[in-house]
Amino acid sequence: MPKLSMLKLGRLFWKFFFFIWLAQLTAIAGISVTFWIKHSNEELARSVATASMNVDKPGQDNRYGPDGHGREPGPGPGPGFHGGAGPGKPPGDHGPQAMGQRKPPPDNGDMRALIPMTCALLASLLFAALMAWYMSKPIRQLSVALQAMANGKLQTRIGDSMGQRQDELTELGRDFDRMAEQLSGSLQNQRRLLHDVSHELRSPLARLQAAIGLARQQPDKAEEYMLRMDKEAVRMDKLVGEILTLSRLEAGAHAGQDLIHMDELFADLSDNAHFEAKTAGKAFKMVFSEDEIRKVCVLGRYELLHRALENVLRNAIRHTRPDTLVTLQAEVKEGQLHISVMDEGNGVPEAELQSIFQPFYRSALAEHGSEGYGLGLAITQRVIQAHAGSIQASNRPGTGLCMQMRLPIAFV
User: Fold this and answer.
1) Quick check: 357 and 316 in contact, CB under 8 A?
2) Is the dihedral of CA 314, 318, 319, 321 positive or negative?
3) Is the pTM higher than 0.90?
């Protein structure tokens, strides 16, 4: 498999190399042809100029004779011939070479032109190879990193190996690192969830087995142990139900498109919250404009949104101090429904404000042996996000915790 991958990358390198070099050769050939045509035209012009110098121009001075050489035309040297230049030739005239018409030297222009063309060809070969290597190197690194990820090396990253490049391939490497981070985080969350689920199921199963063993040993108390077994079975059923709900939400389950009237949802929540708060020796109140909330609707699933808000209210009622108040406040701002649930408990350490939304997380300030599995706020966050909203936790200036939720409204 690695050899096949390297072979593909090698082919990619040669494709880059071939097309880059072909483009450079085309440019070199075009420039060379242009200079060759120019050189040919210049040679032709020089040849015409040389030929024109051998032809008499009109109006030439013939004072040396009718033939231009100081003597009448006719055979023989004629009288007055004394050798040398002779009276028939002007002094200093010794033929065509004396008139400055020497034989031109051999033209080596074509040979000289081959030198820069050869240099350009070699330079194009070098730069094509460098460009192909520069383009294929990050792709080769990405392929190696993908193979490492496929082999389970989730810590593989390639962003640093890209160097100082600033191009699309660098962005691709960064996208790979972000994907690796998310994949690693998802796998860690799944492992932690599996570990926490196993831990949470172990306790009720152990109590259930103990109750069964005691019922066998003490048949006269079988009814008491049966009640204990029934209680533990209910707890496990509730835990499994919450885990399935959380799993569906994390898998991207759609919230639905039902029209939820928030005044009806708040009325239902208010009845349950008043009853639970009164039973625990605490108080609950809702603060919002009935005329305003009556017009507010949210698209989604009534059961999911009811459960999400109920988890927040129950959590606030559980952690607020005795004889204190839990407040639910709602108002419409900028096309969103803002819901705040405030208690008067001990709050949460600042370092744990984001961690409380993780499955099975329990704050260090939570009471030992308190009910719940640490899934309530995790489910709430997933439900709010499935409804295109957001949730945030913050400590109140005085004391207590404030959960702020925002939901887009269908219409007002």
Assistant:
1) no
2) positive
3) no
